[in-house]
Structure to design on (202 residues):
């Protein structure tokens, strides 16, 4: 485990929050949001180990901009192994994991869930997209999933988001969506909606 790529903030509960940053981010980027949404839970930030054009990423792209599926799969396996190791190190509850992910990091969590490797019970995914169409047929209906989408998002197309919702519904995820007329940036309104949704889950 590379501790230089991991941050840990203790909490008063044993249910960890895994923070997965967007492109160019690091392990601490989402901590201010996590502190608002999950004040009592321990927070674990994991930085993507790849660099493209000077930006941190969780998985690579081909020169034409398409997603490198081999890298996506390899880095998903690395991320899952790293999460398991960190949870064991800090003796946290691996059956009560929450994910807070944005963009590139949110894509990783969603890909893991749709390929039958769900490591979380609840996820707040800010501006995720489908990065593969090779999904598992396994149904995992016990996932609580909140996702946000901006109608002016230059990265996540309406078609991609519609497919994302369809794939989640086919697997009977407990899905909630938040749509705004904004772009790809995180807004105060979506954080407030995510907080309201989380409160309703309790």
């Amino acid at each position: 485990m590379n501790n230089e790529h991991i941050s840990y903030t203790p909490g008063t509960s044993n249910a960890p929050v895994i923070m997965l940053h967007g492109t160019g981010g690091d392990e601490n980027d989402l901590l201010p949001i996590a502190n608002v949404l999950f004040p009592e839970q321990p927070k674990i930030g994991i930085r993507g180990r790849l660099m493209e054009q000077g930006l941190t990423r969780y998985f690579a792209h081909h020169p034409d901009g398409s997603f490198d599926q081999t890298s996506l799969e390899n880095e998903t396996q690395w991320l899952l192994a790293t999460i398991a190791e960190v949870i064991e190190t800090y003796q946290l509850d691996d059956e009560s994991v929450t994910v807070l992910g944005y963009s590139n990091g949110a894509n990783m969590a969603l890909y893991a869930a749709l390929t039958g490797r769900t490591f979380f019970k609840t996820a707040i995914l800010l501006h995720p997209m489908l990065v593969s169409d090779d999904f598992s047929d396994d149904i995992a209906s016990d996932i609580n999933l909140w996702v946000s989408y901006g109608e002016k998002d230059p990265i996540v197309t309406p078609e991609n988001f519609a497919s994302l919702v369809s794939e989640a519904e086919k697997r009977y995820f407990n899905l909630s969506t938040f749509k705004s007329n904004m772009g790809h940036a995180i807004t105060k309104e979506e954080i407030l909606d995510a907080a309201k949704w989380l409160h309703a889950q309790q």
